[in-house]
């Protein structure tokens, strides 16, 4: 089974795609249409997020198992420590291995309900992602990734502390980091510089949201944890009530961002798809990340 890190270390830049588990049959049909459409473009890997509990977690395991057995894609499963004992985490990791998933994005996760609420670890669970990295690595031949935050994690007191704990995740055995959403290439490049200055050569991959609608812009602002720069809002807000114009301008902005990142040598771009394929296909095509045969 190919590992994510092998796919990232080729001689040309690549892209990857992120989905979330389907909630019902209709969702599942949409998800699978998108997976099949993107499969033809040979993304480096595809990942499925891990929810706060219950059926969504089953959905992650079911979907990633199907990807591993029915597609040519390299699967990566997200996993969080939220509401899990170590025994349960071992069980999920065992399931991933059993269905052929060897790539795991190891995360602490947020408290369910209020992401900014108090983090209370499971009494027999883990407190930080670093411990989950160690657990996954101790259980077999897994390629492990972690999250990284260009503006610092919202709970971090400052960027120095944030960088210190990010680097500890790499020292614990994570081989790459995927950056949370950000607005300007410099924001990502500063994160990359901080990590390098702290002595780590782990690969960092920018997370990219195709800005197709006002909703995707709002989500980007929320997830980034930062304020959107004025120039970005000036380009998008006047088009808020014109869906076609908003989409065209949004994809131009994202294309410019990605071109700058590629020029700075990033090995890969990680697209948040919202389980749709069209915008990602368009961006990958514009950026020359699609293999010639596709
Ligand atoms: P950690 O690395 O544990 O960090 C959390 C905080 O604790 C930070 O402030 C950090 O600096 C600090 N810290 C870390 N280690 C230590 C230590 N040893 N001692 C003291 N302080 C420490 N959430 C989901 O629920 N499901 C998903 O599928 C999911 N996918 C994601 C994918 C990406 C690419 C990203 C960027 C985020 C994703 N998230 C997901 C969100 C993520 O779970 C939250 O942002 C969460 O708050 C942080 O998780 P983490 O793994 O970065 O935590």
UniProtKB/TrEMBL annotation:
Listed Gene3D superfamilies: 3.20.20.220
One Pfam family cited in the UniProt record for this chain: MTHFR
Cofactor(s) needed: FAD
Top-level taxon of the source organism: Bacteria
Pathway participation: One-carbon metabolism; tetrahydrofolate interconversion
Catalytic activity: (6S)-5-methyl-5,6,7,8-tetrahydrofolate + NAD(+) = (6R)-5,10-methylene-5,6,7,8-tetrahydrofolate + NADH + H(+)
CDD domains assigned: MTHFR (cd00537)
Keywords: FAD, Flavoprotein, Oxidoreductase
Family of this protein: Belongs to the methylenetetrahydrofolate reductase family.
UniProt-recorded name of the protein: Methylenetetrahydrofolate reductase
Originating organism: Prauserella oleivorans
